[in-house]
Amino acid sequence: MSTSEAVVSARSISKTFGKGGVNALQDIDLEVGQGEFISLIGPSGCGKSTLLRVIGDLVEPSSGEILVNGKSAHRARLDRDYGIVFQAAVLYDWRTVAKNIALPLELMGYDRATRAGRVRELLHLMELDGFEKHYPWQLSGGMQQRVSIARALSFSPALLLMDEPFGALDEMTRERLNVELLRIWAELGSTVIFVTHSISEAVYLSTRVVVMSPRPGRITSVVPIDLPQPRTFETREDPRFFELVTQVREALHAGGAEL
Amino acid sequence: MNAYAQAAPRAERPWGRRLRGWVPALVVLGLGLAAWEWLLPALGVERYLLPPLSDVLQAFWDDRSELLEAGWITFKEALGGFVLGCSLAFVLALVLARWRPFGNALMPYMIAANAVPIVAFAPITNAWFGTLSPWSKIVIAAVLCFFPVLVNTLRGLTSVRPESIELMRSYAVPQRVVFRRVRIPNSLPFVFSALKIASVLAMIGAVVGDYFGGSTDALGVKVVSAVSVAQYETAWAAILVASMLGIAFYGVVAFAERLALSWHPSTRAGNE
Lengths: 259, 272
Fold this sequence. Notes:
The complex is a heterodimer of chains A (about 260) and B (about 270).
Chain A: E1 6-17, E2 22-33, E3 37-41, H1 48-55, E4 63-68, E5 71-72, H2 73-78, E6 82-85, H3 97-107, H4 112-125, H5 141-153, E7 159-163, H6 171-188, E8 191-196, H7 199-205, E9 208-213, E10 218-224, H8 239-254
Parallel strand pairs in A: 3-8, 3-9, 6-7, 7-8
Antiparallel strand pairs in A: 1-2, 1-4, 4-5, 9-10
Helix pairs in contact in A: 3-4, 3-5, 4-5, 7-8
Chain B: H1 15-42, H2 53-62, H3 64-98, H4 100-114, H5 122-129, H6 134-158, H7 162-170, H8 175-211, H9 219-228, H10 232-260
Helix pairs in contact in B: 2-10, 3-4, 3-6, 3-8, 3-10, 4-6, 5-6, 6-8, 8-9, 8-10, 9-10
């Protein structure tokens, strides 16, 4: 795959925090193609969130080169090439659901009518119809996270960065949002980079799982996931699903992760 | 699981029930006033310690135009100090939050200054601005308001979750926008808590400033001069006026808070 087609292209990225401090990332090489769903998995401290932030130009790498959509990550951020979702929904308490979703559009100078139309579409897409006038504290954790995803999608970025977005949710809500995320991914054809520490979630969602190990944070293996698309609730009962879960678990062990 | 949990409706509590909630407080008020009027004289409490309520109200009624005039003068001093002190503190908090090293260098002193008994400076400000000038009182009130507003606003501006700031960085917006969209709205609950404290402090500052001398029509001066000629009822009536003004001032700020923070969970109707 040539660099111009890669959505993300990282070459020997390293990141050290502080002087002679923690080696968060070491020699990371990663190519992410258009339309891929990549999970970064690893134990806490393996630098997976740091890698996500390097891609988003929220953390500057100590060395190495990172290209997003064929340009520097910095340029890509200035061009607003990606949407980001965090573990916490990070909604603004003083804004209603509709205004939270519209925030990026407002900042980017879209007119009121465009914003309203887009918000209506996203409310529908995220099954939040009727909640536009609610404030964040009036919503459950799962619904808050839907709003946060809607906000990330509002300006239709081709790349979606997600940092353990479902980590704080209960298992049932998480599985349901997994299904919805895949539906949206298929519908929009976007590229997703997804940080998680759940093996089954990574296998279920991804086209490739990138396994990382801690101290120093590096990529120890990449597991392609060949489960058929679209994935459904039955996918989780597929024998191949269990084989892949085992494969990722062994890769984590081989990388020195204590599970 | 219920991912579609319905949000609690913003139901207003019926008026009858709300009034019933006030009954215990009103009973206590009634008992307190009754004890003041009848129990204290019956116990032999002297009039120079605390005159009966009816005498104080009588004194108020006799001198009402003079006392209200004096209250207005002192209230203007308090309001001037409040506006001056709070706005300077808010602007300085913005500067300190924007340029953090500057803030980190100054903050320990600001917190220390907050603990200084500022009313102790009242005689000094009289020397600076002249005993009869309202400015000596305005400045005391302003300095009293300044530190709590500064410290709380700065805390509100800086206690933003890091992801909130990262989100704004992902939109590649300038600092000015981060302040307008995130830091300032986030600080408002802190700011209003401080403004409520400041409204009380401003009244205290103005009245105490009057105690050290001022134009003879000011409320604090009225208290001092009434006591010096043993007109305790008039002194108490003046104190009553000061209290009412202080409570009204606080009430206005609290009302503004409710309007400005209608989004905040603490202001939801029927708060249980």
